[in-house]
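Notebook entry, structure prediction.
Reason for the run: the old model in the group folder had no record of what sequence produced it. Starting over properly, with the input documented here first.
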Amino acid sequence: MQTQPTIPSSAWKRPIGLGWSTPYKVRYPSNLDDGPWHGAPLGGFGAGCIGRSHRGDFNLWHLDGGEHIFQSIPACQFSVFEQVGSQKRAYALSTEPPSDGSLNAWNWYPASQSDTSTEQTGIYHALYPRSWFVYDQVLQAQLTCEQFSPIWPDNYCETSYPVAVFVWTAHNPTDQPMTLSLMLTWQNLVGWFTNTQKSPEVEVRDDGSPVYEYEPHWGQSTGSYNYTIATHEYFTVVLSGTFEAALPAEGEGEWAIAVPSPVGEVSYHTRWNPSGDGAEIWQSFASNGSLPNCSDKTSAGEGEQIAAAIAVQFTLQPGETREIPFVLAWDLPVTEFAEGITYFRRYTDFFGRDGRHASRIAQMALQNYTTWQQQIQTWQQPILARSDWPDWFKMALFNELYHLTQGGTLWTAATERDPVGQFAGLECIDYRWYESLDVRLYGSFALLFLFPELEKSVIRAFARAIPTEDDRQRVIGYFYTLGEESPVAVRKAAGATPHDLGAPNEHVWEKTNYTSYQDCNLWKDLPCDFVLQVYRDYLYTDRDVIFLEECWDAIAQTLSYLKCFDYDYDGIPENGGAPDQTFDDWKLQGISAYCGGLWIAALEAAIVIGRTIAETTSDLRRITAIQKSLGDFQVWLEQARSVYHDTLWTGKYYRLDSDSNSDIVMTDQLCGQFYAHLLKLPDVVHPDLTRTTLETIYNTCFLKFNHWIYQNREPAASDDRPIQLSPKNYIGAANGVRPDGSPEDPNATHPLEIWVGINFGLSAFLVQTDMQTAAMEVAESVVKQIYNNGLQFRTPEAITASGTFRACHYLRATAIWALYGTLVGLM
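New structure, fully documented this time:
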């Protein structure tokens, strides 16, 4: 008989409460660094999410779309009571007691002291969307908590639910009866996640990025109240509040905690003070595992905090095992951007919009959680069962999906125009704008393979935005970082592909190009990125010609716009010297391998798209217009192909650009060829030259670069051992170094950074070119840097050889699904 749930061996694991002696630190002081205490998030896409770290504390609150709060709320907590014979013990199951002196009557669970088994108090495991706490060596009971939300591919209903399920499995391994009680306490948080600054002032940060302060109604609970709903099936405590209008405003609604009624002896307390010492519930719970069944619906007064609790008590006979589910649900139906610009969340399509359905959501979860578990397992099992894939890859493949929940994700209610709603995820918290198109060139493969309708909704939003114009002037932040006078530029030029779909303080999807670090109207990769993603999404979903037609006018317009930067009329738009592509701190001049290759691939894709549409329409005017564009594209393509190779080929790799005289080997130089191959288009460069270039990149940017790091590092005083250097302990491939692996400029930023998503993209390209061993070496190196150094569930854009990172919670890292796609032969 199985006494505990089966946890996949490939799940990431860490001793409960054990930190890191030297975790990665943020590169720029102004950037976000919450520290290493992050766990797998809970909550559906666009519903808002919460995070629970391997200390056991609930500490991340992404409940206001696009905004970030990282702070433990100690009263939001699980606790356990155990009695065997006359011996009693009770613990709040977090290893981090409050620092403000509150809840000092509670007894807190001891943290693991090291990663040796004798000094561990349990293990936390994570394989998103599931995670587990396995408690050990403190209790006599064998106790495990599995937590998850109902997320699995092609599920456009439950995946949106604002709910978290906690399935506790308790086993009595002793020869005596054992009484256990599990308690969930939760603070009333209604109204806390409402932005008090409806039009916050936007400033330029020291790294040149636009920023604004987020000021929620944190801790403001006046008027909130809690009450119980008891039926023969469920026992629920609802944490609610008063609304001034018929429909709730942002942050208004309800929370609920619930258990099945038949699961054991249920006791409760609906109104206790989470700011006090906590004795009003702990004294009873620690004495006999029960609560005083206090039902008090009195509203919180000015400055008052209130919380609720449910406890389930049961007795296990020797050898007996029991499963106890708890559910946490929230119904906060509105997301507000700038003042008055509101959207209902996707889950409201299934539960209504009045913010009074937390109990119904919780009860549905209790009815269906076993089915949900099975759906997740059915999705994950074929991947987990592959003996030819290492555990680190399977672990990261699922865990990097955390960003789809935690990335400030928006998912709106359905409309006639958008039948599954509109979707968007942040580039990251530091760069707080949505769906940066250059980043998602690699960072959208997870959405493509798992939720293709959401992926296409994002591309439709870009297609709608391309013809628009916004002539407001903005200061360009890049020059600010150089100490130079900052020029101004229009926000959005008609025909330019926008960099992003906007920010949560304005109007996402309608006001695009929020970033002002560079003038994105000048970028040479964005139009190509758009065209390639359109054709990719068509090719790898349902080959919907209507989708192509929706995007065609934008394709024709934006490629014509980009061609205007071909100043010498050789068929390839020139980079302008200022950083004008995704490596926006790295100057490219003239024809570049990166942008030029994307241009050629995009023209090939556009030609196929145009022909496909023309073959399926009988509209002669439409056909004539398409043929005109195709004629232009064909001329440009023939010119570009004759220039690209002859100008840039060195014999071993493609030159960075035509005008800078740099000898840097750029890791992502043949991104256009990668896309041409996966889209089954004519090659940008000959396959033999692709292979030669990738061998040069692997040897230079990965092997030689890492040797250069170790040769030039400053060893610690106690480090007198010789280094056994192999790809197993490399940190990844740099974006660009000289042929001997050394930096062209030791003070450069982007060239010497290791970009996690670019490394995954390179790995996919290596597999595509039958270099799988090299591919897995590159991918493994960055995965181990992330998950061995406290960066889990906040994967950054970049890490450096000095142990720093930049831009955590970054979108591009979901590019590991591109590696998956090449390994399984999807592309």
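Summary: The two ends are 43 Å apart (CA to CA).
The old model has been moved to the deprecated folder.
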